[in-house]
Structure formats: C-alpha cells, structure tokens
Amino acid sequence: MRIGELAARAGVSVRSLRYYEEQGLIASTRSASGQRHYTDDEVERVTLIQRLYAAGLSSRTIFELLPCVDAPSEENSDAALERMAQEHHRLSRHIDELIHTRDALERVMATARAYRETLQATAAC
Q1: HSE-up of 70 (CA within 13 Å, CB side)?
Q2: In 35, 76, 82, 87, which residue has its Cα 20 to 30 A from 64's Cα atom?
Q3: pTM, to two decimals
Q4: H helices within 33-73, ranges in order?
C-alpha cells in the first residue's frame, strides 16, 4: 500500500509516517518512481508506535524497544524491560515534579484569593 493509504488506515498523517521512517521506526520499499510502499503489517506497527508515543516515550526509546517486537528473544526482552523500567522511573519523577508544581500553584492561588478577599472587605467598609 502507498503512504496515503497507510496514513488513512492507521489514523496518522503522512508527515508522521515520513518522520517514523526517518527515525527508523518503520520501513518501506520504493517503486521505480520513488513512491513508498508498505505492507499490511505496518498498520499494526504504526498503531503500536502511536500508543508508545501516547505513553510519553520518545522516538529514540521506541526505536530501542522495537527489537523486542521484531525479533523476540530473551536478550531483546531483557533489554526492553530494562529500557521500560528506565522510562517508568523517568515518568514517575516527572509526575512528582508536576505534582510539586501544581501544589505550589495552589498555594499561590490561595494567597491571591485571600488578598482579593481582603481588598473586597476593605472596599465594603
């Protein structure tokens, strides 16, 4: 199938597919005229890539995990599990930082509300 059909079937943009190919996440064959051609298996692969992106993984990390998908083995599984553990730790730290930032924002908002109430009480007098 050509790139437009893959994009439609996988629910992604043609631009995304070109990026995935550039990053080594998917592969195509080229026709004599240079058009990209993909197999039906690429639909499922692009869907997997989309899920991994949605989970917060980078294209580099996805690239590192794909050998486990392409050639399952104990070695590839061990490497993928180690990489996913690193990503899990990174995401957990990021979540902790976001919670800290949210809590700080809530404190600033509480201060602003209290100040506003003070102003309103003063104006009412």
Answers
A1: 12
A2: 35
A3: 0.70
A4: 41-54, 59-70
**What pLDDT does residue 55 have?**
87
Using CA atoms, how far apart are residues 111 and 117, in angstroms rounded to an integer?
10
For 52-61, the pLDDT digits (tens) are 999 889 999 9
Angle, vertex CA 66, rays to CA 63 and CA 52, nearest 5? 75
Question: Alpha-carbon distance 64 to 50, whole Å?
Answer: 15
